[in-house]
Design brief:
Elements lengths: L5 E5 L2 H5 L2 E3 L1 E3 L5 E3 L1 E3 L15 E3 L5 E5 L4 E5 L21 E6 L4 E6 L4 E6 L4 E7 L9 E8 L2 E7 L3 E5 L6 E2 L13 E8 L2 E7 L6 E5 L6 E2 L5 E4 L5 E4 L6 E7 L2 E8 L4 E8 L5 E5 L2 E4 L5 E3 L2 E5 L3 E2 L9 E7 L5 E9 L32 H7 L7 E2 L18 E6 L7 E9 L7 E9 L16 H26 L12 H10 L10 H9 L1 H6 L4 H11 L5 E4 L10 E3 L14 H4 L4 E3 L9 H5 L2 E6 L5 H14 L5 E6 L4 E3 L31 E3 L21
Parallel strand pairs: 40-41
Antiparallel strand pairs: 1-36, 2-29, 3-4, 4-36, 5-28, 6-7, 7-8, 9-10, 10-11, 11-12, 13-14, 14-15, 15-16, 17-18, 18-19, 19-20, 21-22, 22-23, 23-24, 25-26, 26-27, 29-35, 30-35, 31-34, 31-36, 32-35, 33-34, 37-40, 38-39, 42-43
Helix pairs in contact: 4-5, 7-10
């Protein structure tokens, strides 16, 4: 009973592009919505601050250049949403800083246009690294305009003459991609650059604004965007173009050799400075008070639209089609309804002409293979009234379907109200408001429908009208039985931690004697259940505890037993109980007077090796943990450690610990960490649990000064 029917699908963007569209648009991820137009712009744009630079580092800090005042402003990660009320900052010493970029080694590059050079700042050590001049005697007027991260390095856009060069840390500049003007760029000059997947794109603008063209560095794939001022790319390849102050951001996705525009985003308070994609994937832009993020689409939708699907084939004549399932997002005030047409004729004499979507049109692959659309006369004269949809409370019709927690689409259901026929056409009627539109992501239809009337007395369905009524009357009950049958046939999926629905994951864990913590991510809970038997065999060991913690936090977490540190030299700066306080490295050290007691040997004064190390261990986590994460880690450790042991949980998000717990290869790693930052002399204390940040690379022989140069031998 479960395997006696199949589904016809419309889910791929190419499939939706083959339909006939009336006042509708294609969604970027596949699907349809009502057509839209950008919001009308009222009056001239407000005065802005002019072109600037904006970049983010790995810690979420924002760097914004101020060309007029000659400085680069650093906004902490917690303040990048807005910096309203920030005090006035005095002018800096940089000469017209414009473009900014951060490479993979966390070095900040500043295009100092007025000085004809690029400043490089080491963000790990928070100090200038070098100054790279880009002009010489042969080109005394050359200056950098913009920068972009490119393949682990940074590409700089130069002018007078225009060109691209590649900068990488301490190395000298080398020639970059060849810069060629695109078609239609006569009279324009390159002003901005951005990179995606190793391909540099250039924005060509005029001296007074207006006409602008975005193209690759070699001039291919040009795109005309009037009044464009800056550009960047999302991780998925969506092109973001900023225009004048206060105007929405325009978005484009690649479509073959051209571009397709998708809904613009509202950028409240944009000052015309710069736009970029933040580390969290959201689009950030500069404002008069700092930076801000985009706030929803800036579009007006048409009140109604229609999509006519191409012909679906059941491969059998006189087929009674079953139910239609739609994955849709239908906000309040909007609606989606369906109408169905069927036929047993193999040819369509007057097919409805295919009309492309108003927005988001895609290049259809092999259009000659598209099944025909319905008869134009049949659509005009015999199209049934659209029927409403029923929202399914159980979600997808598939057995044990997994639905992501952030999935904003629901599944709706409706019967095919049409006579039997081999071929089926579905017409979707969409209605919305100026601000809201329904969105349909996928469509599925059962072929054939249920066959319960064949198991009842034939007299009940001999008449066509009676058969149609009986088919529709039994459809809800048969659908419930069919789905129960499908779940029974696929019940083995409940025992697969990767395939079982999220609602059944706790039940599966109970079979193994586990009680899952809902604060864990779903993927981590599934991995814990999958490895439960292996973990139970080694429970209470260091390996077990490390594996469980690494499932919750995908970090190189280490569990170090204190007895392993006996006999290792571990300097302790500070005093014993009742002694003077520990000194600080930096300004505080000069006023503290004395260093107190200094011992070497790995133990505090007054302790012996046994009392300091027996039945004790430390959990070293190279990251900054939130309050909830730290609480989960404590719960895991208490549940899985031996009852007689004592534990010290040490989040190392700020760097390595100096004292009894810093041992190369055992509790520390030389080089960039998962989230380690630099230490500032005068702000960090070295004592029992002092913290020292790590450099961008390991210590270099002969260069690093740690009580003199590092030497070997």
């Amino acid at each position: 009973m479960y395997a006696d029917r199949t589904l016809g699908l419309l889910a791929d963007a190419d499939q939706w592009a083959r339909c006939a569209h009336e006042s509708t648009a294609l969604l970027d991820e596949g699907g349809v919505c009502l057509a839209w137009e950008p919001e009308p712009e009222r009056g001239p744009p407000p005065a802005g601050h002019g072109p600037a630079g904006l970049a983010f580092d790995r810690w979420g800090r924002a760097y914004r250049s101020h060309p007029r005042t000659g400085r680069v402003e650093v906004l902490p990660a917690a303040c990048t949403g807005s910096a309203a009320g920030a005090p006035h900052q005095p002018p800096g010493t940089l000469r017209v800083p414009r473009g900014l970029a951060v490479d993979t080694a966390q070095r900040l590059y500043i295009a100092e246009s007025g000085a004809g050079a690029v400043q490089v700042v080491d963000l790990w050590a928070e100090r200038p690294l070098r100054r790279v001049p880009v002009r010489d005697a042969a080109r005394p007027h050359r200056r950098p305009l913009d920068l972009t991260a490119h393949c682990g390095a940074v590409v700089a856009l130069l002018t007078r003459p225009a060109g691209l060069v590649v900068l990488r840390g301490r190395r000298d500049p080398r020639p970059g991609p060849v810069l060629r003007p695109p078609a239609g760029a006569a009279g324009l000059r390159p002003t901005r650059i951005a990179d995606h997947a190793g391909q540099v794109h250039v924005l060509w603008t005029g001296p007074g604004g207006g006409r602008a063209v975005v193209a690759r560095a070699d001039g291919s794939r040009p795109l005309v965007v009037p009044d464009a001022g800056d550009l960047d790319f999302t991780a998925e390849g969506t092109l973001v173009v900023a225009r004048g102050p206060g105007r929405p951001l325009r978005l484009f996705r690649p479509d073959g050799a051209s571009w397709a525009e998708i809904e613009p985003l509202r950028a409240r308070g944009y000052d015309g400075g710069a736009v970029t994609v933040a580390p969290d994937g959201r689009i950030a832009f500069t404002t008069a008070d700092g930076t801000a993020r985009t706030a929803g689409p800036a579009a007006r939708y048409t009140p109604a639209g229609r999509v006519v699907c191409y012909r679906l084939d059941a491969a059998e004549y006189r087929t009674r089609w079953g139910r239609v399932f739609l994955d849709a997002c239908i906000p309040p005030g909007t609606d989606v309804r369906i109408s169905c047409l069927t036929s047993d004729e193999d040819t369509v004499p007057d097919p409805l002409p295919r009309t492309p979507p108003v927005r988001g049109g895609r290049v259809v692959r092999h259009p000659e293979l598209t099944p025909p659309l319905p008869s134009a006369d049949q659509v005009a004269a015999h199209l049934p009234d659209p029927a409403p949809l029923f929202r399914r409370p159980t979600g997808r019709e598939w057995p044990w379907a997994q639905i992501a927690p952030d999935d904003g689409y629901d599944t709706y259901e409706a019967p095919v109200t049409a006579p039997p026929g081999r071929y089926l056409w579905i017409v979707l009627q969409l209605t919305g408001t100026l601000r809201l539109t329904p969105r349909v992501r996928g469509l599925r239809v059962e072929r054939p429908g249920h066959r319960l009337p064949g198991r009842l007395p034939r007299a009940w369905s001999r008449d066509e009208g009676d058969a149609d009524f009986l088919q529709r009357f039994l459809a809800p009950a048969e659908g419930l039985l069919h789905e129960l049958d499908g779940r029974a046939a696929e019940r083995t999926l409940l025992l697969d931690p990767d395939a079982t629905p999220q609602e059944a994951l706790g039940w599966l864990a109970g079979l193994l004697g586990l009680a899952l913590d809902r604060r864990w991510p779903v993927a981590a809970r599934r991995a814990l259940v999958a490895q439960a038997y292996d973990l139970f065999r080694i429970r209470g060991t260091v390996a077990c505890l490390e594996r469980i913690l690494r499932l919750f936090l995908p970090l190189p977490i280490s569990v170090v037993e204190s007895w392993r540190l006996r006999g290792l030299g571990g300097a302790v700066l500070g005093a014993g109980p009742g002694g003077p306080p520990a000194p600080a490295v930096g300004g505080a050290a000069s006023t503290s007077g004395a260093l107190g007691r200094f011992t070497v040997g790995g133990t505090r004064p007054g302790e012996d090796g046994y009392t300091a190390t027996a039945h004790r261990f430390s959990v070293l986590i190279p990251a900054d943990l939130g309050a909830e994460q730290l609480e989960v880690v404590r719960a895991v450790v208490e549940a899985h450690k031996p009852a007689h042991t004592l534990v010290d949980i040490c989040p190392l998000g700020a760097g390595m610990r100096i004292g009894r717990t810093l041992h190369l290869g055992l509790t520390s790693v030389v080089g960039p960490g998962a989230a380690w930052g630099p230490a500032v002399v005068g702000s960090v204390r070295i004592g029992d649990d002092g913290i020292v940040g790590v450099p961008a690379v390991g210590a270099r022989v002969g260069e690093t000064s740690i009580a003199g140069a590092v030497r070997v031998g």
